[in-house]
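Milestone M4 deliverable, item 7.
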Amino acid sequence: MAVFLNNTVGFKIGTVDLSDHVTAFTLSRQADQIEVTAMGDTAHKFVTGLSADTITVSFLNDTAASNVLATLQAAYGTTVAWAAIQDSSAAVSATNLLYSGTILVDNLTDINGAVGDEGMIDITFTCNSKTATASTGTWS
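Output delivered:
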């Protein structure tokens, strides 16, 4: 059984690597189900329809140029490319796939927290493309 510590996930928006500001990352891939049951069938039949993927990321806030808030604010209201990898310290392979696609940056939480809290934001992005996977290529 391949068990691993999930602390080397890599995440980029466009060309900006935000991995060192990510505390949690979830890629949920799902597709619509389209019923194609025909006369004479004895059970319902379905095929895969449109993709409806989402990405949920927890970021440590950082207002510096080319970091979390500057990158998200520049992308706000647009569709941008993203990339992710399970282990950013290892090569892309069949067991360390490179995921990519586009997301709509349509929600931000610029200010979040209380006295003594770390500045963090949790954002769920809707993917505007089907998530692609690759077992070759480069992360960095």
